[in-house]
Amino acid sequence: MRILITNDDGINAPGLKVLHAIAEDIAGPKGEVWTVAPAFEQSGVGHCISYTHPMMIAELGPRRFAAEGSPADCVLAGIYDVMNGAPPDLVLSGVNRGNNSAENTLYSGTIGGAMEAALQGLPAIALSQYYGPGNNKLEDPFDAASRHGAATVRAILGAGLDSGADDYRLFYNVNFPPVASPDVKGTQVVTQGFRRDTKFSVEPHHSPSGRKFLWIKGGAQHTPTAKGSDAAANLAGYISVTPMRADLTAHDMLSPLRSSVET
In which residues is a divalent metal cation bound (predicted)? Predict the structure, then answer.
């Protein structure tokens, strides 16, 4: 198997090393793992692409490249340049430092990389490691992802649920709970959650010169979402797996809206 990996934390991020090990396990001794990751951190860029300006790409080693662009850019670069137009069998994005559950999904560059792969018709999985009191002081905060990552990816691939034909292809959002690997209780297939009263905002600061700058500020990350959704599962000690598509249509609202709007 030939696997392309990327992330949004940057080419030198520790989570990318974890993902490389997971990918090598999945690819097997005769497989290939190709890395194309952002030269600098790209957290929060979502599914952004560098549509209006070119990006530099550099080869750092065998099958290892850094691009001055977003994770979605890196997937495009991997497919159409680095891998010489011969697409990979699988794209993995992550392992993100921090969760991409609930509203974080919509901002995540890690998700953006997997989404772009799906739009290219490729199987894709995004992987993220929730941080919390149960793991952020461990020698390896990625312990849960390291120990359970390959098995989780194999289980998803083994389901064989999506051919990718004639529709937006499925991709998968995986979040590992904020606990040490022996404390992981299992895996749950869940919906994307919604953290009530948790929103991104801005926090103003002034530089020594007196100029005003705004920092983007996230909300509380340990607020459980509804039962059967991602953050609730993660905070209960479970790996969450959420099937997703790039289709943003609110299908449940089509009929009510038609009755009011169509003429």
Answer: 8-9, 43, 96
